[in-house]
Amino acid sequence: MSISIPPALRAGQRVAIVSPARKIPAPELAPAIATLQSWGLEVVLGESIAGDHHQFAGDDDLRRRDFQQQLDDPSIRAILCARGGYGTARIVDGLDFAGFRAAPKWVAGFSDITVLNSHLLALGYASIHGVMPVLFHQAGGELALETLRRALFGEAFQPIEVAPHLLNWPGTATGALVGGNLSLLQTITGTASQAGFAGRILFLEDLDEYLYHIDRMLLHLHRSGQLAGLAGLVVGHFSAMRDNAIPFGSTALEIIHRYARIYDFPVGYGFPVGHEADNLALVVGQTVTLTVNGAGARLEA
């Protein structure tokens, strides 16, 4: 399947900030709005930014309606998801992408937004896995924000190089990027939001999970055949992992290594992608080359 890349943003265009998952106080977005305006963009806040329904940014219907409005509005050239949390999977089946197909636009976010990144890829469209407005100005996140800007404005992808890692598996592979949050990728297995992994380079990250959960999710991806046929694997942040009173006995990276070694694709660990400040933007669906050797690992377009 060929992947359609949305048009690059230009100064003077309109972008929307919405929250398809957890609620967010609007004042927390003020710094991000100022940054987007400094990039020459006009910012529109969706209805969900004022939404409040328990943990969610409004009930499912409000969040779906808001996202649909931004998909259908031809003047909105990118949709930035304000934050993650939980809830995107509850609304994705109610979205109609007919208007989006007629005029594709960037959708950007990560974590819970992995649902949309994968869903769009399954439809044949690229999107951005990158820092969200609520995190635009976290300490140490300056490069992450700059890589998001580059992706939105269609600037060339800068290669990402990481140091050697004991668990790296050498090799070179080329394929379209697919992936994101491991928990969400496992959740959408067997749904319309599942994008195929075969022949592609999978990237993974996760946060605040028990180690046995990591094992269980990877076991599911393995048993369901999703890891078979991968071109390569990029391993990002697995942050704030938890364990039981009786230890699981392996770290998150060791668990990944156990399943990756069943196959023979190259694997690079330590990439700056995930729930930490150095969350560099990746274009899901972009064709990249992963090289893993004694010098470390490199991802380039």
From TrEMBL:
* Ranges for domain LD-carboxypeptidase N-terminal: 15-130
Which keywords fit this entry according to its UniProt record? Carboxypeptidase, Hydrolase, Protease, Serine protease
Q: Where is the LD-carboxypeptidase C-terminal domain?
A: 174-290
Q: Which EC number(s) does UniProt give?
A: 3.4.17.13
Q: Which GO terms describe its molecular function?
A: muramoyltetrapeptide carboxypeptidase activity
- Protein family per UniProt: Belongs to the peptidase S66 family.
Q: By what name is this protein known?
A: Muramoyltetrapeptide carboxypeptidase
